[in-house]
């Protein structure tokens, strides 16, 4: 899924703060992976996924703006 880029240096000494573009790119990748995982779960467990969709729809119907 992820390309093998340079390793992140999280927590290893002082580094320059990440730019907004880097943060948005990492967030977009995370959201793509999350959507892919949800789609896989829906394919593997269709009954549970359907029940989760129905629960979510009920929550949205009863939510007060």
Could you characterize what this model shows?
This protein has 65 residues and is mostly helical. It has a domain at 22-62. It is built from two helices and no strands. It has helices at residues 20-44, 46-62. The longest helix is centred in the middle third of the chain and has 25 residues, at 20-44. The relative contact order is 0.07. The model has no long low-confidence stretch (mean pLDDT 82).
Gross morphology: flat
Number of helices: 2
Oligomer: single chain
Radius of gyration: 18 Å
Strand count, sense and barrel status of the largest sheet are:
none
Unreliable stretches covering 5 or more consecutive residues: none
Record keyword descriptors for this entry.
mainly alpha, 65 residues, single chain
